[in-house]
Amino acid sequence: MMYSIAWSPEAKEDYWENIDYLLKNFTTVEAQFFIDEVENYIKIIANNPLTFQSTGFKKVHAVPVVPQVTLYYSYNKDEVFLLRFWNNYKEPRKLKL
Fold this sequence. Notes:
CATH topology: YaeB-like fold
CATH architecture: 2-Layer Sandwich
Shape: globular
CATH superfamily: RelE-like
Radius of gyration: 13 Å
Structural class: alpha+beta
Strand order of the largest sheet: 1-4-3-2
Order of helices and strands: EHHEEE
């Protein structure tokens, strides 16, 4: 069964902030790599949301998309909710899901 994907407003904002940062400080190659990795992980999650580790947050799973950014998501019986693309250099206690 393939789960549908929904993006939270925070996930959308985080995603674009990461791309903007990469485009300003690196090259389009790094930005495209990030985009491709996100797409690959979303495909995996859509096929099986239990693939990646559970977190300390209730019903939330996480996967490091790249070493600097972790994707947090939850799911129900037919939909995956992308919650955040958290920059791992930020203070972990500030992460709100």
